[in-house]
Amino acid sequence: MSPGLTDGELTVLGLLAEHPRHGYELEKVIERRGMRAWIALGFSSIYYVLDKLAKRGLIEATGAPSSVKSRVTFQVTARGRELCASATQDALATLTPMRARVLIGMANSPGLPDADVVAGLTQRREAVRQQLTEVRETRAKQEPLPSVASAIFDYSEAMLAADADWTETTLNALMQEVAVDKYDVKKTHRALYSPPSKEFTVVDVPEFQYIAVDGSGDPNTSAEYANAVAALYGVAYTLKFASKKTLGRDFVVAPLEGLWRADDPTVFTTRDKDSWGWTMMISQPSWITEDMVMAAVDDVAKKKDNPALADIRLRTLIERTCVQILHIGSYDDEAPVLDRLHNQYMPEHGLTFNGDHHEIYLSDPRKTAPAKLKTVLRQPVKPG
Question: Which residues form the GyrI-like small molecule binding domain (predicted)?
């Protein structure tokens, strides 16, 4: 662009070079010719530009001053016409650098959830398509057009069509990538879900969210426990399918987990299960919301009557420093491992309890022999 003239100033100067016009007429010409598809020049901006051009001696008012500002007619001065011609020639020859804001958005998009990027690009695609339709409708109203006007519309249409194609291609690629790359909490947090089985390890557990149900009693005989587990799995799979359908984000349903509590921790080693309190839960991706959970609960309730559905909630768990180990074998064989954790490892390392006993059930007990069951045993701790 020639020094000293912005795009808006050159546009107004060029329209006045055609013949004298007042501000309201400039607005109508800009609107009628569809110029706002390629120049950001609002109605109020026109008068700001006119004032700037007049102060620089590039345009001047014609005739007696009008009492209505929008009816003051301006014409180009000799100096203004000369600068307009020079700047127009420069504009024809000079490449415009790419400054599309969407490029900044794409550069920053890795910091957003995929669903937000998909939503943003979807909104952009519809907006570009709408703008392209408006440009074509504006053109159709003025046909036949002089070759210069046709060339302007050709360029506007080509740019918008290219933008629409780019947005569509980018959006499709992103959605395919998201669909292929399923979120799996066990893979994303491998160290937390695949601990060694021969020794205790200390881990720092970040914040997770879960769908959860509270209860108490022996899990082997309690109807309350069976209902809770059935309700959790029903809602978990409903959330998975809803997320994939509405957000384009798929995930692997996480394993069942349990928080176990008692007034006396020794009941875990003596296996006095009737005195256990528990919270059964299934981890959820960060994009799952309370509203989505409630909708999933309603969907499951329509298909099956389960009293535990009414108790399902989305909850956050922050455990921080924990000691954990992988137990291979029957659930009832956990007692010696827990005894070693509670009465040897923790005292020797100056640690004490800092939360509920946590178990993660990596195996399906319906399909796995008891001797081969894999369970992560985790205990939140703090300095004793």
Answer: 199-381
